[in-house]
Amino acid sequence: MQLSKRLKFIIDNIEENTTVLADIGTDHGYIPLYAIKNGLCSKAVAIDINKEPLGKAKLNAILEGAGEELDFRLGSGLNPLEKGEAEVVVIAGMGGNLIKDILEEDIDKVNELNYLLLLPAQNPEVLREYLYTNDYEIIDESLCEEEGIYYELFKVRKKSGESMALDSIYYEFSPRLLMKKEPLMKEYLISKKKEYEKILGFITESTINAKERRNSVIEKINIIDNMINHF
After folding, report:
1. Rounded CA separation 95/122 (Å)
2. Please, which of 7, 24, 30, 230 could form a disulfide with 91 given CB 3.0 to 4.6 Å?
3. Dihedral (Cα; 110, 113, 116, 120), 10-degree rounding
4. Which UniProt keywords apply (predicted)?
5. Residue 1: is its pLDDT beyond 80?
6. Which residues neighbour 111 within 8 Å (Cβ) at sequence distance 6 or greater?
7. Are 139 and 47 found together in one domain?
8. Which of these three, 163, 179, 195, is where a domain ends?
9. Which residues have a Cβ under 8 Å from the Cβ of 97 and sit 6 or more positions away?
10. C-alpha to C-alpha distance for 148 and 163, rounded to whole angstroms
C-alpha cells in the first residue's frame, strides 16, 4: 500500500502494541488499514461523517485482505466511539478550529485516551493555543512537508495542571520545534516570512488602520528573522 508522505508521517508517530486505534475523518481509511496490516495495533476503528469515503475505505480494506479487526463507523467526530474504547485517536486533514471543536464535544472520551495524534490542514496556531491553555500535555510536536505545504503534528494527551499560556507569536511558531531545532523548521520559517512579505506588499493605503497593520507585519517579519538566525 502506497502512502503519501503526510500519512506516513502520521503512521511513524503511532507507538507499536496499541490495542485499539481510532481514525477520525478516515477518508480512504489508509491510516487504520496500514496500522492493522503492519501490526501497530490489534484493532482499528475508521470513522467518517460521510458515506462515500467510508465506502471507499471499506473497499480498500477488502482489496487489502483486512478482516473484522478493522471496523467502519459512520458519524461525527468521536461520537461513534464508546468511552474508553480506543487507546489512541488520530485526527488529520481538518482545520485547527474543527479539531478543537471535536475534542471539546467529547472531552470525557478524550480524558480516557493514552494519546492523540492531531495534524491540522489549516490554522495550526488555533489548535496549539487551545492545547497549551486547556490542560493538554504536549508529548511532542513534529513537522513535515509535502508538495510545498508544511504540516504540524501534535502528539498530546489530556492531563490536568499542564496549561501554559504563551505569547501569541509562539502559537503560530512552535516553541518546542524552535527549541529542538526541528530540521524543517528553518525552511518553514523562511516560507512564512515570504508570506508576510507578500502581505506587506498588499498594504498600500495610508489610513491609520493600514499603518498599524503594516507595522504589525513588519514586526512579525523581524521576529521571524530572529528565529531563522537561531538555526
Report:
1. 5
2. 24
3. -20
4. Methyltransferase, Transferase
5. no
6. 158
7. yes
8. 179
9. 123, 126, 127
10. 33
Helix 96-105 to helix 124-133 angle (10° resolution) is 30
Domain that holds residue 189: 185-230
Residues 35 and 11 in one domain: yes
Q: Tell me: the pLDDT tens digits for 27-70?
A: 999 999 999 999 999 999 999 999 999 999 999 999 988 888 99
In angstroms, the CA 46 to CA 130 distance is 25
| Pairwise CA distance, residues 157 & 98, whole Å | 18
What residues form DSSP beta bridges with 144? 151
206-231: pLDDT as tens digits: 787 888 999 999 999 999 999 999 88
Q: Assess whether 164 and 67 both reside in one domain.
A: yes
Sequence-distant (≥ 6) Cβ neighbours of residue 202 within 8 angstroms: none
Q: Which residues contact 26 (CB under 8 A, 6 or more apart)?
A: 32, 46, 47, 48, 53, 54, 57
pLDDT given at position 67: 83
- Bridge partners for 154 per DSSP: 118, 141
The CA dihedral of 137, 178, 88, 122, to the nearest 10 degrees, is 110
Same domain? 171 vs 200 = no
| Number of structural domains the chain divides into | 2
Do both 130 and 162 map to the same domain? yes
Q: Which of 152, 196, 145, 215 is nearest to 178 (CA)?
A: 152
